[in-house]
Amino acid sequence: MGLVIRGGTVVNAGERFTADIEVEGRTITGMGTGLPKGAGDTEIDAAGRFVLPGLIDPHVHMELPFMGMVSIDDFESGTASGIAGGTTSIIDFCIPGAGMSLLDGLKLWRERSAKATSDYSFHMAITHWGEHTADEMRAVVRDHGITSFKVFMAYKGALMVDDHALYQVMKVAAETGAVVTVHAENGDAVWNLQQELLAAGHTGPEYHPVSRPSAVEGEATERALTLARLHGATAYIVHMTCRESLHALERAKLAGQKCYGETCPQYLLLDDRVFNAPDFGGSAYVMSPPIRPLHLGHHDALWSGLSNGMLDSIGTDHCPFTHEQKRMGVKDFTRIPNGAAGIEDRLAILYTHGVVGGRFSLERLVELCASAPARIFGLDKKGAVAVGMDADLVVFNPDAKSVRSARTHFSKADRSIFEGFDVQGKVEKTIVGGRVAFDNGKLMAERGAGRFIARKPTHFAHPPEVKA
Ligand code: URP
Ligand code: ZN
Ligand code: ZN
After folding, report:
1. pLDDT digits (tens, 9 = 90+) for 281-328
2. Which of 8, 169, 203, 212 is the most buried (most CB within 10 A)?
3. Alpha-carbon distance 403 to 383, whole Å?
């Protein structure tokens, strides 16, 4: 008893063609035209629709304890929200608490994620450098199939690491073949700017971006890439927002360094006017790095980076907090929990503003949101519609129009940073592991149906002698 998806236009990175797709169990078992329908097979008519590989979100935080709160989507609601938006795999960040070992952190994350409705993996965060950290990193890669790490260069006093830790993480990652994902902002500079603003009585959310100017992101990106280069490590800079950090990435790439850059839809579509929304409404948009002003050219630079190949992927940094949770920082913007929802919006927003908007092709969208994350992070059975790959698929109607809203999304977030955005193109069906999990607005995602995906290391040290 399988599934046949008939007559759709399959879109992979770099190609599109019309084909029927045959699914048995969790796997795509056949592709071609006029495939026969087996007894008991369910048939889906995809004529006039695109059939895409299920998107991969390489950057999410489900039920993350952060800044005194826990982000509101857990692994069940967050992955279900993803499915409704065409995302069928996530890579969350395992962030062990203070004093907790990496392996204990991983155990905790494995327990929390057991209710996920779609497949998942983790990046392992290193938030301090201790005498056992190197060995634990090796064990995480060797024994647990986690082949990417995370360092935060910001959030001083909480998650931030110093350059010594950064240096050591890059060294062990290069030795073990893991990639290092980096939140690149100069956390000391941010902390000082925050204290100066608060001392001057500037306490509202509109001061959040003032405390984190693009220069601090550019400097940290340059520093992270330099430390990676010393060891031949592969760095992946997450949620890039500005020209300065893009230039640092571009310099490294053009000098032959193996490194990657990610941005998120909010940095392409929103600008810093959002922080002036009345009634503390600007708090909904508080995330780090911040949403940038329009007039400085950051948005255009990001769009160009996506089309010219300097940027490699688009994640969402899905990390929603409710309005009530955000009120923690009502008298002090530095205490507003950072983050917002986005996993459900990514495909429709990027199809509308990227593809229909003429910025890049649908094939490139698939590359940025599915095949590149799969390749970079070693999700071997994901990111393409092909025989032998996991049957994670999206049937997408390019003509349907709708409006994004917190009233209709499946996330538990009570606000949407894309509220009122008109979008073209709609996820009609999402197939997860060979089963229809979303069908024309009806969510049938199954608690616990997602699997942990163990990965293999591929990013072993590459020659550090790159051109100056
Ligand atoms: O503001 C953000 N981005 N919140 C989530 C944590 C992080 O820095 O990615
Ligand atoms: Zn971050
Ligand atoms: Zn994040």
Report:
1. 999 999 999 999 999 999 999 999 999 999 999 999 999 999 999 999
2. 169
3. 27
